[in-house]
Amino acid sequence: AAAGTVTDQPGGRYNIKLQDTENGVVTRFPPEPSGYLHIGHAKAAFLNDYFAHDAFSGSMILRFDDTNPKKEKQEFEDAIIHDLGLLGVQTKKVTYTSDYFESLYELCQKLISEGNAYADDTEYEVQKKDRYERRPSARRDRPATESLELFKEMRDGTEIGKRHCIRARIKFDSSNGSMRDPIVYRFPSWDADEGPQPHHRTGWTWKIYPTYDFACPLVDSIEGVTHALRTTEYADRNEQYHWFLDALGLRRVYLWDFARINFIKTFLSKRKLTKIVDTGKVDGWDDPRMPTVRGILRRGLTVEALREFMLKQGPSRNVVSMDWTTLWAMNKKIIDPTAARHTAVEIAGKVLLTIEGAALTPWKEDRAKHPKNAGVGTKVVTFASKVLVELADAATLQDGEEVTLMGWGNVIVKRISKSADGGIECLEVKLNPGGDFSKTKKIHWLAAEGTQNSPAQLWEFDNLLTKDSLTKTDEFAKFLNPVTATMVDALVGADCEGLVEGDIIQLERKGYFRVDKAIGKGPDGKAVMFKIPTGTGKV
Ligand code: ATP
Ligand code: MG
Ligand code: MG
Q: How far apart are CA 283 and CA 412, in angstroms?
């Protein structure tokens, strides 16, 4: 397409402006390797992926924005690459802002030489006040040669160098605060107890680092990025972004702003997420209660639902706290048509039911795993004259009542044996072939004979926070939900033996579950299953 045309590409959801580019559209996803990807990052990753691969046939770069050596680690880089894979987001190449440190240094020299930047040793607080009051720095008119000398001192980390930073000479009294001579190079501020740290890729080579404001537009332009997607908090800095490219005679990049996403009762700040992992509030970055990509997928969210949800938000600029229910409801629509149906009976208080009229020798029958989708396949169900039902169901039955044993048929309650304390010991029922299903209570069951049932832990989770959204002054520890996980021990039938980690099933009358550990693989050989929210009820 021609330069500057607004097109509505076939299959494109958004009205995206195309630039004339030799290699088509190039986007980039620029995480800082200082934590695991969370659901907010997933939005950015999906949008970049969509622009690059769905709306246009272009490519996407994964760029590690590693200009802050204090927080960055290899572990996080590996995790980010892995998690983008989980999301099905394809990257053409992986780059690092640190690959460009030498070029960025030279471009900063150029900026200084041409009178567009200067070395400043004004104290931080004074600098801040000057900016606020739109006053020029006392060093603003320093000759370029002097600033270049000082930039060299900074690179060498000399005493005089250490007192300086480099600032762009843009417009100290601009109505846009980001244009008031922003910092382009600086010494990182180190934690007092740790002192300077080596950069995880460049080691001790650099003592000074470019700021994000300076590095981002330059690297975008150098790498051939055509469309840079940024969250709306950066909108004020778009002017500055273009200024750097224009000042250095570099190719402009098209900016597209989108809203940051938040979820109620959830925090996405890396600092807070790190804290609950480090304090053992959750079991790790992939804990199903975590809003990380790993956590939410482990809880049973499908990539398909997540992607569709995020792309629907698209170019909206309203920063809102989304309700989880909408996302989980979308997920349910995706998992329901293919989730195999199985049965689990809670162990605590389970009741033995004896069925008069059933053959005394247990037998097996094939049954569809899904009532409406034969493609899901069949399972082998064991039938026996003795079956297990849940106490919660047994307790509701009356003498003479007709109930339906799911997948079998109707029975009539003949005898309810109570123990001394009033609990139910066992039940006797009689088969009633040809009974009417329309008004009866439906009860799930497992054969108690002729098969091997297996133990399984059924987990259900809750939000980490008790408050919808925290304000700046809310101390987050005060709003941590004290109970975020509950578990019941259950038995599952032999038809669950083929389940593997990651399978999504429905346990009749209990809901959807994701198999986290197959039978034999969890604690004491128990299977582990996580309940998947559906957007109704809790969460
Ligand atoms: P930022 O730099 O915006 O503060 P961050 O430091 O939390 O984000 P980065 O690793 O820098 O995380 O983010 C990588 C990309 O993900 C950036 O493009 C960033 O804007 C985007 N991103 C981060 N959090 C969210 C969110 N909650 N919603 C949408 N996009 C997000
Ligand atoms: Mg960042
Ligand atoms: Mg952040």
A: 47
CB distance 151 to 185 below 8 Å: yes
CB-side exposure of 36: number of CA atoms within 13 Å? 22
Cβ contacts of residue 358 below 8 Å, gap of 6+? 383, 384, 385, 431
pTM of the model: 0.92
| Cβ atoms within 10 Å, residue 444 | 21
Give Cα separations from 63 to 219, 238, 318, 474, 488 (angstroms).
10, 20, 26, 34, 44
| Top mutation candidate among 41, 65, 80 for ligand 1, by most atoms within 8 Å of CB | 41
CA of 225 to the centre of ligand 1 (A): 18
Low-confidence ranges of the chain (pLDDT < 70): 1-12, 15-23, 537-539
Q: Given this model, what pLDDT does residue 17 score? A: 62
Task: Tell me which residue of 232, 229, 237 sits closest to 320, measured CA to CA.
Answer: 232
Residue for token pair 């004491």: 524
Structure token pair of residue 194: 């740790």
Give the count of alpha carbons within 13 A of 410, CB side only.
15
The ipTM value here is 0.95
DSSP secondary structure letter of residue 152: H
Number of separate helices (H) and strands (E) present in the chain: 13, 29
Smallest CA-to-CA distance from 250 within 222, 231, 227 is with 222
- For tokens 């199903």, the residue is 288
Q: Are 382 and 358 in contact (CB under 8 A)?
A: no
**Probe residue for ligand 1, chosen from 84, 231, 232 as the CB with the greatest number of ligand atoms within 8 Å:** 231
Of 298, 343, 297, residue with least CA distance to 448: 343
Q: What is the pLDDT of residue 425?
A: 87
Q: Measure Cα distances from 340 to 79, 387, 401 in Å.
A: 31, 22, 30
